[in-house]
């Protein structure tokens, strides 16, 4: 746009109409939102003034959705780990019970009997060593 005198600007629309050049305005499609913005409660100026707030609210919504997904992912991970802990606890209890069974005197005697070792029947004897000076 160049700087022009006011008289030149005022004469232009008259010249265009005289020459048959009509400036056609782009027509908006008729739907709820365009009718609300053009002739409804909210004007175009008010809508443009509200744009930063609308962008802020939409960003807040996206952060809320992302936070929800993150929380659900963490909950699924916690559930998976708790199931694994339960399973490992059952394994521990089973192994502990097996060890307790295998470490009893009768079970040890039965296991070493296959190697040819026998359980002593005589009680142990005390050995006394005297030291002479």
Report what the structure shows.
The chain is an all-alpha fold and 133 residues long. It has a domain at 51-115. It has helices at 6-19, 32-39, 44-102, 105-113. The longest helix is centred in the middle third of the chain and has 59 residues, at 44-102. It is rod-shaped. The termini are far apart. The model has no long low-confidence stretch (mean pLDDT 82).
Uncertain stretches of 5 or more adjacent residues: none
The major pleated sheet works out as: none
Total strand segments: 0
Approximate shape: rod-shaped
Give the DSSP E fraction (strand runs of 2 or more residues): under 5%
Q: Tell me the distance between the termini.
A: 126 Å
How many helix segments? 4
Cα-atom Rg, whole angstroms? 47 Å
Instruction: Tell me, rounded to a whole number, the average pLDDT.
Output: 82
User: From the helix content, strand content and strand pairing, which structural class follows?
Assistant: mainly alpha
The portion of residues assigned to helices is: 55-70%
H/E series: HHHH
Features:
133 residues, mainly alpha, 4 helices, rod-shaped
Quick overview of this protein structure:
This protein is an all-alpha fold. It has 4 helices and no strands.
Write the layout of secondary structure elements.
Layout: H1 6-19, H2 32-39, H3 44-102, H4 105-113
